[in-house]
Amino acid sequence: MSDLAAPNSIPGPRRRKRRFDAAHLALVAYVVLFVLFILAPLVVVVGSSFEPRELLRFPPQGLSLRWYYQALNSDLFVGAAWNSLIIAIFATLGALLLGVPAAYGLARFDFKGREAVSGLLNSPLLVPELVMGLALLQILAGLQIASSVLTLTLGHILICLPYVVRTINSAIVGVDRSVEEAAANLGAARWRIYLTILLPIIRPALYAAILFSFLMSFDNAVLSLFLVSARTSTLPISVYNYVQYSLDPAIAAVSTLLMAVSVVALFTVSRLVPLDRIKQ
Amino acid sequence: MSDLAAPNSIPGPRRRKRRFDAAHLALVAYVVLFVLFILAPLVVVVGSSFEPRELLRFPPQGLSLRWYYQALNSDLFVGAAWNSLIIAIFATLGALLLGVPAAYGLARFDFKGREAVSGLLNSPLLVPELVMGLALLQILAGLQIASSVLTLTLGHILICLPYVVRTINSAIVGVDRSVEEAAANLGAARWRIYLTILLPIIRPALYAAILFSFLMSFDNAVLSLFLVSARTSTLPISVYNYVQYSLDPAIAAVSTLLMAVSVVALFTVSRLVPLDRIKQ
Amino acid sequence: MSLEQTSSRTAAAEPASVSVEGLRIGYGALEVVKGLDLRVAQGEIITLLGPSGCGKTTTLRAIAGFVSPSHGAIRLHGRDVTDIAPNKRNIGLVFQGYALFPHMSVFDNVAYGLRMRKVPAPEIRERVERALKLVKLERFAERRPRELSGGQQQRVAIARAVVIEPAVLLLDEPLSNLDAKLRHEMRVELRRLLKEMGIASIFVTHDQEEAIVLSDRVVLMNEGRIEQEGTPQTMYNRPGSLFAAAFLGQANFLRGTVASLGADGTAIIDIDGDRFQAQACGGLKAGAPATLVVKCERLRLDRSGRSQAQCTFEAANFLGPSVQLQCSFKGQRLVGLLPASTEGGAMLEPGAPVTLSWGEADGLIFPRAD
Amino acid sequence: MSLEQTSSRTAAAEPASVSVEGLRIGYGALEVVKGLDLRVAQGEIITLLGPSGCGKTTTLRAIAGFVSPSHGAIRLHGRDVTDIAPNKRNIGLVFQGYALFPHMSVFDNVAYGLRMRKVPAPEIRERVERALKLVKLERFAERRPRELSGGQQQRVAIARAVVIEPAVLLLDEPLSNLDAKLRHEMRVELRRLLKEMGIASIFVTHDQEEAIVLSDRVVLMNEGRIEQEGTPQTMYNRPGSLFAAAFLGQANFLRGTVASLGADGTAIIDIDGDRFQAQACGGLKAGAPATLVVKCERLRLDRSGRSQAQCTFEAANFLGPSVQLQCSFKGQRLVGLLPASTEGGAMLEPGAPVTLSWGEADGLIFPRAD
Fold first, then answer.
1. Parallel, antiparallel, or unpaired for β C251-261 and C322-329?
2. Which of A138, B21, B72, B181 stands the most exposed, by the fewest C-beta atoms within 10 Å?
3. Start and end of every ABC transporter domain (chains C, D) (predicted)?
4. pTM, whole model, 2 decimals?
5. CB contact under 8 A, C99 and A178
6. Topology given in CATH for the domain delimited by D250-367
7. b/e string for C282-300 if b means 16 or more Cβ within 10 A?
8. Per-residue model confidence as pLDDT tens digits over D108-121
9. Which homologous superfamily is D3-240 in?
């Protein structure tokens, strides 16, 4: 039927109209520029880390790994990096152990004040990190406890917790209750439902929570500023202290490495979960 | 029919079974303890701000507004607070003006690399704030631009942008495209669809973006540490500097006021949008 | 109200697969189930039918153990399970949305209940394969639920529920997520499957057609109570109340007053001067308001029935296998469904006079409140 | 293939409300609509019917302007609008999910199109009120869409689309979001409403019952092309192909071979030795494989039809107004739908012999590929 020509003129092939394309192209161009604008500072940092001479500048005068070599051989930075890594790992573990059950309780049980608790945890900026740092400093001073890796880790847990609870909570809310009921109906006790049904289903959220928690802790500067001692300095604090007296390409190299950790962590997790499902 | 007794014994009224209640109560108790644990540091800060004497301690030895009076009469803190307020307002405006169109482009147009851009914007921790501060410092130094309220505002826009884009983007993705098509079908041109349909529908997300952007900027310490000059100090930086040489209850009072700003902002927005819909 | 209540009570001698006695369930001050008795025999399929909010799903959830009744008892094969946790009840449940485990293969979904019962692995394999064969999904064992169609997912849910050999199978609107064509096919298929397995089953649905096709016995619920129960034929042809008559099938409701009562269980209703003899239902009193109920498909476009109404033709709509005839009678609407082969009313003009008739046994007279 | 194609072409003298000529639409390499011609006259209601993926929704979106065709033209009242932006076309569109503006009252939703057209405020008020009255929602003007039921939302969507007095009204599966009972009611109601307004309308649906009840003309689509078009009666009773026969109504398909061709447009099909005379459809050749199609409701449980099949009874399912009879005939399944009043097959045992018959005009013979 489609092959019969209609009596009143069938037009020939027509160019696909670009009715929306002007607006479309403009917006796409805008988005690209926008991303470049956001990325520009990073390009500057990464670029100038390859500078061979003593002066921090962009574009670099050559390409050298001299400052990377120097940074990786600096006891100051390497020691701080180990501290950061250990604190980030234990802070993440702690935040998961405390946060996942809390997220479950918030998602699955009705109790008075649930709305308030939920709202509180959904507003992480309610407590400025600076204030949190001050409070912890004051508590440590009051209890006469010396700053240590342990106190830093406890402080970081406090910072990471709301993010873990939020991520896991919204994942659990998204799991149909009837799936848990189906497991109970088939004979599973409560703890088996958690282990065999709930946790496997929310695995993407668990990965996201681990990623965010790790990076929140690893990159944290504000809280650490109040809690570090000379012995327990973390990488961001070492960078900050270094900048106080010298602005050479070593700092760009360390910054680039700091970002590399984020990229590697993000990339690892994105192999396990699609990137756009990683929501805070 | 229900009033007829069945022949084989209808049991009398029975106590409502508490089969799940042990687990339920334990979890609720846990959640409450958990929240207290998170809130404890703040209680210490707020509590000690009412201390009448010079020594920062908790619990306070009395109740006095002396340190609030002193903080609100300190040129140092009041000037910094004005700076913070002005910067936060303009950074928020800037982030909205740049971020809303970008969020729309990402949500509604397909183009190569959209996934990548979207992933990038959904991972705000990819770039540690510290590195961003260093980069901006380097750029300003390279271009020989003096630090000012303007440069601070630009820096804060860069920090706030990804949050704005993420919040608005996920709201726009949640708006059924057919609603926009319905408006076009009824005769609305593109710009009228934005103004009369899209923006009003995503109003809760706009409020949330404004709230987060404002607080991100107002409470920001890390980026500001690199960009402030003596003249342009913001409130968090003033607090930090003050702590360097003195730890008296004035700092608790200012911290409490800083939190009060967050609470007031959050409360204002929650009057307009339900709290649990404020997602980052 | 139940026509079959007596018979199901006297059957108490043989132990029912499930029995529910005096069930009352409340959420706070709101009582959702207000006293309900139910017995399901081995191999019997019953349907809890009713509008949303009538308590049918709550009843099902109480049997499964997810809701605690405030009064009453639930027994499986005579054993009181009212206080037993849901994971210890041995009841099969097919959820409305199927509630498959998204992270497991079809095989693992079906095997889950057996693994929880610590059945040895070789036996698990054998029983799961048998269950998948029964629902014709043996070739899909390694798929994930999201890779299956709606109908296939539903069959996985059934296999998963029956593989544990439950005392009773509960199905909560199992067809409501399928599209119209598949839903019609699955009704018959599902009944055949359940009969083959011989498991006592309780369906919950708000779709009267589904209830009629699927069940041995329909339990019509209304506001937390049983309105009527009986075979699909009884429920359809002999509704016990106006509510039941309106809920099952499409019917005409003509308002009038009782003219007189016959000794043979019939009555005569007066509708604006015209009188019709029909079956008397419920407590009719001469002179009291009453409603004459006639199913749409029982109306005939000729004078072959004893009851005849002089109507005004309004419209005829072709429905495919049948033609819908819209007429008015004394200002009330009368709708007939005629086989399309009769070409009924095709040549009528709107406003034309037309006679519709029906058999005496097709009419039911109910008392009316106002 | 179209039975009515000629007549709709000769009607080209009067300008159609909408005409679509040689429409082709592709997404990348995939061509979804492969050449489609369509004319809708003033006040006519047509339905694009077909399985999902047949291109019916894409066609509708092309008429509305949201999809650009690669070939062909779209005309409104003779004016070529193929290159006109969607907001300048003056076409009414009712979306599947209604797409109401959630932040506006019902009044503002309906007024939106008029405001975009800069109609003066008093006239807007008057026209919106008239439109809301038409869909019986005048008392809901100040409500928000979410405060309305599904059926009410759908009526708001219709009022919003018709208040701008569009050249044509497009409706994309407008009933699919309603529950079964409401959907059945709204079909008739919607047709009445559209006829009252006299607007040319194009429905898109995959539900054949809906297409039959709603439309003046059904356009059956398959894989981007028109399979057949015609009145609902023609489409239902005289399907032009096996595809059409399978898509409209419930039918039996008996495989056999062509025994002989008659001169009067009939043919005789041989099914494992039994021969049946029926209407010949398509290019039949003696000895070639063919399929006999008989609609389920045309089968009778007696010998009154000229074609008679000696079957084996399998099962009878009570459906309420009718009884479904499952039989087997020469190893093929034969399903009959009999009026329940005949009590057909109630006393038969599975395996019993039974004779089903049908009229000669009820059978259609189609050529079969394999």
1. unpaired
2. B21
3. 18-248
4. 0.83
5. yes
6. OB fold (Dihydrolipoamide Acetyltransferase, E2P) (2.40.50)
7. eebeeeeebbbbbbbbbbb
8. 999 999 999 999 99
9. P-loop containing nucleotide triphosphate hydrolases (3.40.50.300)
